[in-house]
Every structure is written in C-alpha cells, then in structure tokens.
Amino acid sequence: MLGKGVVGGGGGTKAPKPSFVSYVRPEEIHTNEKEVTEKEVTLHLLPGEQLLCEASTVLKYVQEDSCQHGVYGRLVCTDFKIAFLGDDESALDNDETQFKNKVIGENDITLHCVDQIYGVFDEKKKTLFGQLKKYPEKLIIHCKDLRVFQFCLRYTKEEEVKRIVSGIIHHTQAPKLLKRLFLFSYATAAQNNTVTDPKNHTVMFDTLKDWCWELERTKGNMKYKAVSVNEGYKVCERLPPYFVVPTPLPEENVQRFQGHGIPIWCWSCHNGSALLKMSALPKEQDDGILQIQKSFLDGIYKTIHRPPYEIVKTEDLSSNFLSLQEIQTAYSKFKQLFLIDNSTEFWDTDIKWFSLLESSSWLDIIRRCLKKAIEITECMEAQNMNVLLLEENASDLCCLISSLVQLMMDPHCRTRIGFQSLIQKEWVMGGHCFLDRCNHLRQNDKEEVPVFLLFLDCVWQLVHQHPPAFEFTETYLTVLSDSLYIPIFSTFFFNSPHQKDTNMGREGQDTQSKPLNLLTVWDWSVQFEPKAQTLLKNPLYVEKPKLDKGQRKGMRFKHQRQLSLPLTQSKSSPKRGFFREETDHLIKNLLGKRISKLINSSDELQDNFREFYDSWHSKSTDYHGLLLPHIEGPEIRVWAQRYLRWIPEAQILGGGQVATLSKLLEMMEEVQSLQEKIDERHHSQQAPQAEAPCLLRNSARLSSLFPFALLQRHSSKPVLPTSGWKALGDEDDLAKREDEFVDLGDV
Length: 747
Fold this sequence. Notes:
- With 747 residues, this protein is α+β, with helices and mostly antiparallel strands.
- The chain is built from 26 helices and 16 strands.
- The strands form three sheets. Strands 1, 2, 3, 4, 5, 6, 7, 8, 9 and 10 form a ten-stranded antiparallel sheet that branches.
- Helix 9 runs antiparallel to helix 11 (353-360), helix 12 (362-381) packs across helix 13 (397-409) and helix 13 packs parallel to helix 16 (451-465).
- The longest helix is centred in the last third of the chain and has 25 residues, at 657-681.
- It is globular, with a radius of gyration of 28 Å.
- The model is unreliable at 1-18, 21-38, 91-96, 552-601, 710-731 and 733-747 (pLDDT under 50).
C-alpha cells in the first residue's frame, strides 16, 4: 500500500533544498500498481465529456507548514477538465459539511480556468508552452480562480508523463474554434435531459415583452420606447434584437450608422432622469462623411437635450476614465499576491504585503469605479439630469458603470433575481465580449481584461459595507466569479446575443436541426444542492415591508424626502447644460477624437460630489433607498473570501465575519422563538420565518473563509512573522492552544 510522500523542510524564511522522501521504495510502486488501481476513484464524466489522456502514480502535493505532504492518485485530462483522482477522495465525499459543487470537484480544473502552467526542472521553475523537448519532474498549475495545484511526476512512467503534460498544455493553451468549446458537446449530449429551474425568474431581456416590463417597472415608459428594429439582427450584429431608445427618436436613425451614435436607454430614476449609453461613430478621414456624421449627431442631441425640461450630461469613459490596459495590468500584479506555491513563499511575501498590494493599484481602480458611479448618481438624483455614457463600443466600461449606478439607486437590483436580471440586461444583452475578455478561445491574449471581475469586486465592496441591503451573500458573488470558467453555461461564453443565436442553430442554414438548448448560469440547482444554495441567500437581508393602503400615502412622501437629499439647487449655468456651443466638442468625442477635460468644471463637479457624498453618509441608511459606498482609503478592502480562500495560512479558525454571523443567527433564532410564544398567546397565525443556513449553524469549527476553507488542510503556524513564531512553543503546544479557540459548532 502506498503511503504519503513528504518533502522535507524546516521553519525560517528560506526554504531548504527539497528532497523527496517516500515510505516505500520506488520499485515497490510498480509492484503495487494493481492495488492502486483497485483503490482508484471512478472518473465521473458529464454528458458529452471524453477522456483524452491520463497518468497514474502521480503525487498531488498539499501545502502544510513548511513541509509538503502528498496523496497518490491518477491525473486525467478530458475535453472539459483536468482532474486528480486521489486515494482519499472517499473520505472527502463523506464530509457532509462541505460546500460542494456538483459540476466541479475539489480536485477538478476546467480547461478554461487554467491560467499558467509551470514545470520544475532540477529545482528550477519554468513556464511551459508549446512542444517540449524535456519533460518536468513536477507540474504546477495556476488557476484563474487562484487555486494552485502541484503534481510530482517522478514515479510516473515516462510515456505517461509525456502524454499527460503535452495533453494539458495543448488543450489549455492552444487556440480554439468557438464550435470546439465543450459547451456545444454538452448541450448536444444533454439535449433531452436539460431541465430548467421553475424557481428561476431572472428576466433574460431576449423578448420585447421583457424590455416593456422593465420600462414600466422604472416608470420610464413616458419618455422611452422599446423597439424591434434590430429583430433578426437586420441592422447590427452588435446590438440585441430589442432595446430601448428615446420616444422622439425615429427608428430609421437607428439604421443610419448600424446602431452607432444612438442613445440607448439603461434605466430611469424615480424623478424622471435617465441613464443612457452611446457607442462612438466609426472614425472617418473624409471631410464629407465627417460633416454628415456631425449633422446626424446634432439631430440626435436635439431629441434628447431640450432645456430646461431635459438636460443631458455626458461622461466620456474612453477619454476621461480608466483604460482597459490599466485594468489588465493592475489585475495581473494583484493576482500574483495570492498565487502562492508553498507556505514559505507566503511568509516571505507577508512582510511586504501592503507595499505589493498598493503597487498593484487594483484597490485604487475599484475606488475610481465606485467614485465615478457616485458622481453619476449625484447628477441624476440631486441635479435631476440625464447622463449619457460614451464609449467606443459601449460594451465594457459602460456595462460596469451603468450597473453600479443601478445597484446604488435601485433596491430591486439588490435582490438576487434583480441582480441577475441586471447582468442579463447590461452585460449579456449589452454585448460585453465575455469570450474575448475572459480569453476562452486563447486566440488573443491582448483582448483579455477582467472587466466583469472588476464589477463583481466593486459589488462586493457594497455588500461588505451594507450587508442588510442585499439579498445575496459574498459566497454568491464568489461562485458567480467561478462560473465564468465553467463551459456548460452559455451566459459567459459569447461576445454578443447574435453570436450566441447564430451558433445555437437559431439562424443556421440547416432548418431540420433542432436549436440547442443551452443552460444559463442562473439555474443554481445545476451546481449546488438545496442545502448548499442556502449559503447564497443572505439571512440578514432586510426585506421591504409590505404596507397597506392606509400606510402608503404617508410613507410615500418620506421615501421621496430620503432620496432627494438637501443639497444646493440645480443651477442653470451654461457649464452644467448640454448647450449648443458645447456640441462641437462632444461630436469630436463621438467621432473618436480625445479631449483633455470634462464638459463640466472639475472643481464644481468635485464640490457637488463631496457635498452629496458627505450628506448621504451623515444620515441613517435606508436599505431600500439610495445606497452609497464609503470610498476612503481603508474602506476599500481585499475581497478575502475569493482571493485568500485557498491559502491555509490566511484562515482564522473560529474568527472572521463568519463568527459574527453565527452569533447573529443565534440571536435571530432566539427572537423568532420569542415571537412564536407571543403569537401563540394571541392565537395569531405565525408568519414564515427565514431559516438560518444549516451548513453554517451545524459546522463544528468554522474558518474565517467559510465555506471554501473547509476543503483545505489548515496550517498550525500562527499569523506572525516567521522569525518569531517558534518562540510560541512547539507544534504540540500550538495544537493545545488551538483547542482553546471558540467552538462555533453549537452556534
């Protein structure tokens, strides 16, 4: 029987030269192959999934302290994932407290989730790509969800090493065709077995009825109309079949420049102001065409800017905000802080953690995004102005900023169904290029930019600062970010609705074939059992109270008063308006020419922003009204659950927010129990009460990074510099002290 391999090492800041020590001799490994095979866990394949290559007698390292313990098993590669089938998987399966994904196991990596592959040759780590002349003795895989896998190949047969390493490199790094994605293999194989969740009421915005419903919900149907001019993608492949434009806008104008230069409605505020977006017209050198474009835009502006009734402020996100290159560069630096190969590396970087974090600029980019969204919110809420977002294709930063504004201003978007509908409207139907931005096809690394992940990080800041305002949890956001790389859902694997419909067979030449029925990520039952799904719903969410007719009249004025903050009145100064003399500058914007400053005075804008921001934060929070984040330095934090969940040293047993939440749930249960007794005395019908997540309540010992940290082996080393931790005592002493931690099992 095979034992666990151990790589020796000691404490301190510098790792000693690693040497493999096994409890069995190398020659015994092959003599015991039969026994290993009998213990191998069965490889579970999804419909349409095919095994491509495999290797046996592979050692998967597990980092713990300064040593590396390993588990023997099989390493396989399919057309969907890389999977390690270890000897101790059966023990893991019996753990009922785990937050399990039904599609992706703990030791599974989808091919799209692989970020970088490294090989270790004579103790030197090198990036692997293309055809190899020499094969490594150790394989290291860095994942886009920030997991790190290390496999020792020393005792694997040479031919199997060549096959598995070459297969993994090819199927994760070689450019792919869209039709070769596993998404289509799965959809074809599971065509008759696909069952949608009847409880999923997410608005998909793929029908005219959906857009009309959204217009009615936001009271925007007085000034805006849903159009079907692009039905069948007759006008533009970039736009969805249905969208909303200002009512005075003639539909023939939409067809003029294939949807470019058209103000497209995003959302309407309670006071009548609206958020719009517009893509730039194509760049032209010919003076005659430029004059035609200028006249066209001049006519467009007259329809949306009619002072004093309709005043429009423009935000050129292409010229006066972040660049996509800035976002990609910052995240590339930021993620390296969490791709830790071993414990020693973690402690070596700990002393310079803050300087590395600051130099990445990722938190500063989050702050800038939130600040821009607050500025736009101030224009709409306090100044009653329409805001027009400008971008080259209106499919990256427009999606990001418009979504954040709606989250801050519309409490419906803070429910789970509302949030999912928001992503469908602004990102999926808004034409965000998920296929390119996530680099799913590996065709152009320069197009890869984590814009959607930046959005989720911004949302997490709001959820973290105002938990009762959101129906979903940070765990929901974390698994949503993981779902970006699971190619059985169509949501994040197309660049546009047109690309999706075309490749699903809806517009294909073969009328005999049945269109594919692709899953959406919003059907959470595909990934999680009902017990696990309880962790996606926030038990502390403050639902909007249902008022009777007698109460509504009195409450309506209070609600409006809370939304309309007592700021200085909107001025009619030419600096604020969208007036004729400014049109030439804005036309230059839309024609692709950069300008050096905003239309509004920057000083005046900063003053309005600060007054609006301070005034809101000086009052108590209405969780069903306007919601603004704190954006001062220390308030923008690292999303610990997503970025630190795979690092044992970063976990706090019995601590963190989960400990606070457990105590709150305990108090909620006591209050509910008292309420039941009161109801019994008054013989009234008991209202249904929200049930605390059983996974959280019944866990014997929770980690600060729950529920993901339950899958990890915890390091016994305390969170102290390596030079001084030994002074606390040996490991036995530390184990005794660890037992003194607060046990949350009964909470």
